[in-house]
Amino acid sequence: MAPKPFRVCVTTVNNEFNFIMDPKVTGKQLFDQVARIINLRETWFFGLEYTDAKSFSCWLKLEKKILSHNVQKDHAQVLHFRFLARFYPEDVSEELIEEITQVWKA
How many other C-beta atoms lie within 10 A of the C-beta of residue 104? Predict the structure, then answer.
């Protein structure tokens, strides 16, 4: 029996996005999908954070399958991620090209 699709919820500063994902999907595929939806091209400052089964905050490893992470599920078996800034440039005006990137770093 093949693994079933699973539900994912990604929270950003302004929105919440819900997806049905294939079990083979990697962190990068989810991250890229969110970046496309919010129209973000300068993605290197950001990542997807989750709470693991031991209640620790962790960063999703983009090269690994989502289901290979020990993500804590809610009562409805949904995996929750937070789209957050991982790195903050020293000089925002010099290092950020697009204005939209500054909005997401807030």
Answer: 22
